[in-house]
Design goal:
It is built from 10 helices and 12 strands. It is an alpha/beta fold and about 260 residues long. The chain has a single domain, classed as Metallo-dependent phosphatases (Purple Acid Phosphatase, chain A, domain 2), CATH 3.60.21.10.
């Protein structure tokens, strides 16, 4: 069995504690000796080159082993626009490791340069590119779709999202074509991994080839990440690995202690 670790929303640069947390996460990932790591966006908090350089320094041991695949998030589009440094500037691209085929979607857009316009973008042309990419997937490999923004409605997190939802603003909404993406990939893909929302969630769409849709949450606040064991499209429920014990905001405390999202 191969093992895939999923992290997201590191927000390096937001607070000094995030840098300390990221270092602990990398240390844990190296100790776990996972086969690959995916980071689904918001690597930086303000999209600054200095924050990007901190990412390169902190994750250098894993990057040197070519064990990391990353897609940009809306925060990476702000500031200096380091999203272009994190990805190859294609809206849909492919990355492959032995036994794992990943379709990487850049769900960010120019409007994300404003921190008050954090919603994502997904269009028919991008869905077509996902279809074409999956046609090239090797038989017998686990298939994953990676993107930052959530594809289905998720609970409101915080006062800002509450106001956005109440007034019909798009900032906290799921991707407009998110459900269509799931419809197209179901039966062809094993994992859809995303971030953006800071509280981790997971759902399984049943079928002949079950599809797990998982949100990693904010890894530097949670102090934890999921590890999926997989082989030939057979994927186990994500196992949470705790890298450290942070001080968590009340909302995350409730999720961690009262929700099956993170045992």
């Amino acid at each position: 069995m191969y093992r895939l670790a999923h992290l997201s929303d590191l927000h390096l640069g937001e607070r000094p504690e995030h840098l300390v947390a990221a270092r602990a996460l990398v240390r844990s990932l190296l100790e776990e000796d996972v086969d690959h790591v995916v980071v689904t966006g918001d690597v930086t908090h303000s999209g600054l080159v200095a924050e990007y350089e901190a990412w390169l320094e902190l994750f250098a041991p894993l990057l040197a082993l070519k064990k990391v695949t990353v897609v940009p998030g809306n925060h990476d589009r702000a500031g200096d626009g380091v999203a272009e440094l994190l990805s190859d500037e294609l809206r849909v691209s492919v990355d492959g490791r032995e036994g794992l085929f990943m379709v990487c979607i850049d769900s960010t857009a120019p409007h994300n340069r404003s921190t008050f316009r954090s919603h994502g973008d997904l269009c028919e042309q991008m869905l077509g590119a996902v279809d074409e990419a999956l046609e090239r997937a090797p038989q017998g490999w686990t298939r994953a779709v990676l993107l930052h923004h959530h594809v289905t409605p998720l609970p409101v997190e915080g006062l800002g999202e509450w106001f956005a939802e109440r007034f019909g603003w798009p900032h906290a909404a799921e991707l407009p074509l998110g459900r269509e993406l799931l419809r197209r990939v179901q039966g062809r893909v094993d994992l859809v991994l995303h971030g953006h929302k800071h509280v981790p969630r997971e759902q399984v769409l049943d079928g002949a080839r079950p599809l797990r849709v998982a949100n990693a949450g904010c890894s530097t606040v949670l102090g934890a990440y999921r590890v999926f064991s997989h082989h030939a499209g057979q994927v186990t429920a994500g196992r949470w690995v705790h890298a450290f014990a942070p001080t968590r905001p009340p909302l995350l405390e409730r999720v961690l202690h009262g929700s099956p999202a993170l045992p």
